[in-house]
Amino acid sequence: MASEGGERKPECLLFDLDGTLYLDSDGYVGHCRARAGEYLAKKLGMTKEEAEEKRKLALKTSNQTVKGLRALGYEIDDVEFVTYMRDG
């Protein structure tokens, strides 16, 4: 979209919510991590401790949990995972 002076102005802004905008102290990131572990424990039949270790390994592997889990051989529905993780 161009302004009156012919300059282009952004039509929208896109934010990355994976810890970029939220401080750990506000609880949002911790909430998402806990929910991610809870989802993996239920979905993959693991203890919460095993699921948390798997989540950390997946994140370390690919810098994205779902991508990392897939690289480790798990079939994860990304929409279902993210919806569960951010809910509650």
Features:
single chain, 88 residues, mainly alpha
Notes on the structure:
It is elongated, with a radius of gyration of 17 Å. The chain contains four helices and no strands. It is 55% helix and 0% strand. The protein has helices at residues 28-44, 48-62, 65-71, 78-86. The relative contact order is 0.11. The mean pLDDT is 88. The chain has 88 residues and is mostly helical.
Write the layout of secondary structure elements.
Elements: H1 28-44, H2 48-62, H3 65-71, H4 78-86
Helix pairs in contact: 1-2, 1-4, 2-3
Q: How confident overall, as mean pLDDT?
A: 88
> Structural class, from helix and strand content?
mainly alpha
Q: Give the terminus-to-terminus CA distance.
A: 38 Å
- How much helix is in the residues? 40-55%
Order of helices and strands: HHHH
Poorly predicted tracts of residues: none
Q: What is the number of E strands?
A: 0
Strand content: under 5%
Number of helices: 4
Largest sheet: none
Which geometry do the CA atoms define?
elongated
Radius of gyration: 17 Å
